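Bug #77: duplicate submission created two jobs. Keeping one. Sequence:
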Amino acid sequence: MLLADNGQSARRSRPYTLNQYWAGLRIDEFKFVWTGEIEDGIVQRGAVGGFSGFIFTDAGSGVLFNLYTNPQEDVNIGIRHIPMYVPLGSAAVQYMQDLLRYPPQFKVGFLTNNPPIYDLLPGARVLLERFRQEGLGRYPRAE
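Kept job's structure:
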């Protein structure tokens, strides 16, 4: 199911999670992140591994990385690769539809005031049904 005929992975996209959040999405060499960790945001010395920073859950328009040219993920290239948002958005909708079809079966408690993905699923279900009926953006659905 995951391998193509030549033994390579048949997947083009990969969702990323961080704790209870859907954090980002990767297609080929492009990784789009909207939730992540601000490294060394709490302690700068004495961290012996694991998380040492705040988790941001709203990066505005998100951050786009090219993992081939910038594996350190420290240069946002979103403004130069705007067309890449089309396949990323399409893959995000497909992943959200999969989550609606097969919702998480358990909840992990985190002390936070931000909604985790399983709390967002009912609203996403309504939104996806509206898109199906009305179309996207300013262009109505073709009859």
